Amino acid sequence: xxxxxxxxxxxxxxxxxxxxxxxxxxxxxxxxxxxxxxxxxxxxxxxxxxxxxxxxxxxxxxxxxxxxxxxxxxxxxxxxxxxxxxxxxxxxxxxxxxxxxxxxxxxxxxxxxxxxxxxxxxxxxxxxxxxxxxxxxxxxxxxxxxxxxxxxxxxxxxxxxxxxxxxxxxxxxxxxxxxxxxxxxxxxxxxxxxxxxxxxxxxxxxxxxxxxxxxxxxxxxxxxxxxxxxxxxxxxxxxxxxxxxxxxxxxxxxxxxxxxxxxxxxxxxxxxxxxxxxxxxxxxxxxxxxxxx
Length: 293
Prior knowledge:
Layout: H1 15-28, H2 31-42, H3 47-50, H4 59-67, H5 70-73, H6 126-138, H7 144-163, H8 174-178, H9 199-204, H10 214-227, H11 236-250, H12 256-259, H13 264-289
């Protein structure tokens, strides 16, 4: 494997992509839902970190948007450990300290790939976790155990709904990690400066520079929400099916494995699809959160 690549369980959209989806979701929530979400966020052990730059009365909104990146950040947080690493000390407010890298993706063979085994999709828990996290958050029950489970589930769901809408996160796309791109910054000047960039990383960075925040993030959020329509109601399985279809039809340039180069028409199409998926993720996340009891 080439140096500098992340494993297949790496993040989907960059921080900006996740923040945009969360921002769009927040704007769709009625006041009652925002209060329920805020109550859960305020009980999370990392709430103070998410709100350290918050101003005025937008503190819960800030926490919600920043919580969207939490599931990626803990992969590099020394408090947490990967599945194949020694366990770290259990801290108050967490059910476990594993970073759960395999929650972010699901490996479905592309249409032209041969399924190696009947349990290929078991290599990645995204589909299952979307169901269980939604069930946890929308369950009725006033016990302390149920409340704590919701507190832990919320930032995960905020993040994973967006992950499910990144097309290359629902396919067995090892080639997209192993083949580097030739000079990708000519297409996306705001992309991070990396010595090696894969096609998967190009998709991750389609939302723009990863550090977008504040007024610029809000402006981008409003522009996207105004440009793309609200998607039809659907289930997590359908979100993943949509992403899988997009990956098969538009995820890879023609002769990508041989040419290892992305042209402007492909990039522009991918950028348009990424924007659509980010908006759809925001609306669908809001749909789930409006069901909080």
